[in-house]
Specification:
By secondary structure, the chain is α/β, with parallel strands linked by helices. The protein is built from 22 helices and 13 strands. A hairpin with a 3-residue loop joins strand 10 and strand 11. Pfam families: AAA_22, PG_binding_1.
């Protein structure tokens, strides 16, 4: 509908899993590498999990494009079947004769004969099961039995399971422990970061044939905020936003259009009218605008009276994705409205104290001051001019830096002071130290001053990027504390024992096995239960070891509270 208007060869934001439109963020590159590594092995399982709409199916299609020609592939897209039906589906995908009247064992024997013949011809077989979280435990056990088909050298079949996070939980169940032990590679695909979202949009526009500026910087930020970096939601919101701009006869998309589009995508009747009403209203406003346009040209003033106010026309800059991302340019009305929202959110009526002012700060100075406040929370006097890079100096104190994307709940779970990246109305990244948290407010140090602000105020200018300090485990730390073992296994055993005692976790018969204990601890702490001892798991273990660390829930976290 709008392709010719914007100069697209095709729709840039279709939700069809077209590999040409796959933007390879760092997360997607890592996921693809894990899949390819797993397939290059000697058989077993490869597992890729991710939330709905994060791009698993599209990534799978790209993955299939890179598989060598000597690999035969069986794709299963409807796994809500019995074990026998699944075997029949795999057989059909591999071109085997129909054996619907045969028993399950006869079907397995037929598949085994095929795999042995393929192996003798130098061919490999890969079974890809999408939406694998819908498989029952019985069917998964049958899938595991397929990997028993082997020669003395290798497994005859490789199996890739793609699914939502529930798949990881299912695979962690005791009943499927044998299958879990055969997983050679696994990866969880997270949402895109704010910067990746911007580049993702620019990349898709470029593939569709448009290299100019369409989305304003603030519109891009609005897309990220309302999509949470989930590619499918990004596509839906951007598609509806382009339609909205088209109905206004505008070649640019601004934040107000994105907000309206996001409400319609969500079906939020309270916040916005249905799509048909919006189109009718926009068309009427367009007719009114054209009438006013004719009248005002005679006076030498061109005023387009559309619902969005002054039309944005920002310059474009090249993005790292090879496409074009519009640089920041706000309308007067939109800028003032955004500032007014922050002032109202931060006002006393919201229980937030003084307004949060970010306009007068420079990104560099705010970052330095934020890290000074962060180190002060840990009891260290950090001075950038003397100590150099913050994260390098942190290691000399036995601390590590963790840079992640998250939300309010994640910050509360980690319970550590952090540096948040806030976006001011100019589009600059302003750093603030998060020193304390309560239910609906937080204490931020911005520009060397600390104040309480409401949660709504923080979330209106924060898009999820944060950095925090955490105490490194002994085997990674440059500091050797008296009485602390540097043996990784022994330290983990001691840490888990303390945590289990505090939390009253049931260790059970596997008390001497580290991985099941780690998974149980991760589930209790709201972390991904993968048995991998990463920074998030170590941070939560430190919490139960009686070590002196600052926390957001403690008043001692705030060095500027007075």
């Amino acid at each position: 509908m709008y392709n010719d208007f914007f100069g697209f060869r095709e729709s840039p934001f279709t939700i069809a899993p077209d590999p040409r439109y796959l933007y390879l963020s760092e997360r997607h590159k890592e996921a693809l590498a894990h899949l390819l590594y797993g397939v290059s092995g000697q058989g077993g399982f490869v597992v890729l999990t991710g939330e709905v709409g994060t791009g698993k199916t599209t990534l799978c299609r790209r993955f299939l494009e890179e598989i060598p020609e000597n690999v035969d592939i069986a794709l299963v897209f409807n796994p809500k079947v019995s074990a026998r039906e699944l075997l029949a589906t795999i057989g059909r995908e591999l071109g085997l004769p129909e054996v619907s009247r045969h028993s399950t064992m006869e079907m397995i024997n037929q598949l085994n004969d095929y795999l042995l013949k393929a192996h003798a011809e130098g061919r490999h077989t890969l079974v890809v099961i999408d939406e694998a979280q819908n498989l029952s435990a019985d069917v998964l056990e049958q899938v595991r039995l397929l990997t028993n088909l082997e020669t003395s050298e290798k497994k005859l079949v490789q199996i890739a399971l793609l699914g939502q996070p529930e798949l990881a939980t299912l695979l962690d169940s005791p009943r499927l422990r044998q299958l879990s032990q055969r997983i050679t590679a696994r990866y969880h695909l997270d949402q895109l970061s704010r910067r990746e979202t911007f580049n993702y949009i620019a990349y898709r526009l470029s593939v569709a044939g448009q290299k100019g500026t369409i989305f304003s910087r603030r519109a891009l930020a609005a897309v990220y905020r309302r999509s949470h970096g989930i590619p499918r939601l990004i596509n839906l919101i951007c598609d509806r936003s382009l339609l909205g701009a088209y109905t206004r006869d505008s070649l640019t998309v601004n934040a107000a259009t994105v907000r309206r589009a996001a409400r319609e995508v969500r079906g939020d009747e309270r916040a916005g009218r249905p799509s048909l009403n919006w189109l009718r209203r926009s068309a009427a406003q367009l007719r009114l605008g054209l009438g006013v346009f004719v009248l005002t040209v005679a006076a030498g003033v061109v005023t387009l009276m559309l619902s969005e106010g002054v039309t944005e026309s920002p310059p474009a800059v090249a993005s790292s994705a090879g496409g074009w991302v519009p640089s920041l340019a706000l309308t007067v009305e939109e800028d003032a409205a955004a500032e007014g929202r922050v002032e109202r959110d931060a006002g006393p009526g919201a229980g937030s104290g003084a307004p949060l002012s970010l306009g007068s700060l420079s990104p560099e100075a705010s970052r330095t001051q934020a890290y000074e406040a962060l180190f002060s929370a840990w009891g260290h006097d950090y001075r950038a001019g003397e100590h150099g890079q913050a994260c390098d100096w942190a290691q000399t104190r036995g601390l590590g830096c963790l840079h992640r994307q998250g939300n309010w709940t994640r910050l509360r779970t980690l319970d550590r002071p952090a540096v948040l990246e806030l976006i001011n109305r100019k589009g600059d990244v302003i750093s603030a130290a998060l020193l304390a948290m309560e239910k609906d407010r937080a204490r931020l140090a911005v520009g060397g001053e600390a104040r309480w602000v409401s949660r709504d105020t923080v979330e209106s200018v924060w898009f999820g990027d944060y950095s925090l300090l955490w105490r490194l485990p002994p085997w990674q730390s440059r500091l050797i504390e008296p009485g602390t073992t540097r043996d990784r296994g022994l330290w983990l055993h001691q840490a888990l024992s303390q945590a289990e005692e505090v939390l009253s976790l049931e260790v059970g018969a596997s008390g001497d096995e580290t991985e099941p204990r780690i998974k149980a601890f991760q589930r209790r702490e709201g972390l991904r239960s993968d048995g991998v001892v990463g920074p998030l798991t170590l941070i939560r273990l430190n919490h139960y070891m009686g070590r002196s660390v600052p926390t957001l829930s403690s008043a001692s976290s705030d060095p500027l509270s007075g």
